[in-house]
Each structure stands twice: as C-alpha cells, then as structure tokens.
Amino acid sequence: FVGALDLNASGEELPNPRHIRIVGDYAFITSNLYDAFGVVNISNPASPTYVTRIRTWGETPNYLDSAYGLDIVGDYAYITSITAKSLTIIDISTPTSPSLVSYVMGAAYALNNPLGVVVIGNYAYIACAQEVSIPATVTTQAMTEVKAETATGDGTVTDLGTSDPTQHGHCWSTSPSPTIADDKTELGPKTATGAFTSSLTELTPKTLYYCRAYATNIAGTGYGTEVTFTTRARVLGNPHIDQLIYQHVERIDR
C-alpha cells in the first residue's frame, strides 16, 4: 500500500468511479453517480490530492449523465455517458483546468447505453450494451402532376436503418417541416431500399404546401428534405370546357 484519496470528501466528491486513466502526474476519473469527470494529482503517490472536476448534474443538457467510459489521446479526454447517450470531448491540455470541447448525445447518434470507448486516429470506437437503433434514410424529390386538389410525390428510401420500415410515404402541411402528425400517405412496410410514389389528395386550390417523404422503423421516423409546391386554381363551369382550359393553361405554364 502506498497512498489513497477519499473520493467522498465534501466538495470534492467523485463517487462510484468507473474508469481511470493516468497521464504524467495526473489521474483522470469518470464518476457515474455524480455525472462528473475529475482530476487527481498523483505526483506524490503516497498523498494524492484532488484537483478539480467538471460536473453536469442538474444542468441542461446534462452531457455527462452517468459518465462511464474514458480514453485519453494527446490533450483530449473522450468520455461516454450511459444515461445521456453521449460522447463528450474534454480539453485536458491544462489538467488543472479542463474544459469542454464538444459532445454528441441522444438516440439520434445511436449511442444506446455506451460503455467503453477507444480512440484511434480520427475515430472513436464505442461499445454499447444495447442494440443500436438507426432510423431509415429517406430523400424527397420534386412534386409532379400538381393540380388544384391533387399532386404526386416521389421519394426514395436509401437506407432501411436498424430494421425494415413498418410504414412509409409522404407527409404534408401548409406549415414548414411537416411530420406524420400532419396529413400523410401510408404505403405500408418497406422491405428494400428504392423509390416510391404517393398520391396526395384533398388539397386546397391555390395553396402553398410543404412536403417530406418519410419512413418509420423501430428507431423512429426518418424524413427526407422538404420540398414545396403550390396547387393550381380550380376552374369552374362546363367540365369539358374546363378540361380544355386547364390543358391550355397547363401548356402555357410549362
């Protein structure tokens, strides 16, 4: 036995430490219980001393929520946090004053229950204890056959994601960024990548619409880029004359 440090001392707590890395005279520690990353001076192994910590408990966002995995490469510490589903990068070039560089967090990054992390070159390799869930990737093409009350939407599923989509189609609204909570087509399951077409109906004439293709799988709903279109005016009167007028106007528009 050489020396020890109480990590439960008031104001210097780093309880439930999960991982530790040693660089020179300093030990870097993740604290799962305190949502923290701490630094301890070990230049005198017989009497290590607390230096500082970054704690995000109670903050928004809490990017170190249940801090766990840790790797250090050069001047940077890479930390995975279980509850935050995050990877955080801390600048430790000055060990007595570490500072946040950046983080990615949330299910959108497929970091479900991230535990260990190893950084090699330009990449961080993260071990997750739960299945990674990735939404489908979708693109939206320009609208075609736009009429007074109908239009045709085209889209493409370029990646199915974690699992085959159980539903796909187009959603639209008179407000930007439409979602599946708005008007939508439902074309059913999608078991392979590729193009699809939707028929939009019951539209309002002379109205600007926003539209996105979508696909929903176990990870959630992926949307394509937003496109806009404006429905044509309704032509009233004799239906045969209306059709001739409409075709004439359509040719002029083109």
Write structural notes for this entry.
This protein has one helix at residues 239-253, and strands at 17-23, 26-31, 36-41, 49-55, 67-73, 76-81, 86-91, 99-105, 114-120, 123-128, 137-140, 151-159, 167-173, 183-184, 194-200, 208-217, 220-223, 227-230. It is mainly beta and 254 residues long. The protein has 2 domains: 17-128, Lipocalin; 137-230, Immunoglobulin-like. Strands 13, 14, 16, 17 and 18 form a 5-stranded antiparallel β-sheet that branches. A hairpin with a 7-residue loop joins strand 3 and strand 4. The N and C termini lie far apart (86 Å). Residues 153-179 are annotated as: Disordered. Residues 153-178 have a biased composition (Polar residues).
Throw out a few tags for this protein.
1 helix; 254 residues; Fibronectin type-III domain-containing protein; four-stranded antiparallel sheet; FN3_sf; LVIVD; 2 domains; 18 strands; five-stranded antiparallel sheet; mainly beta; Lipocalin; Immunoglobulin-like
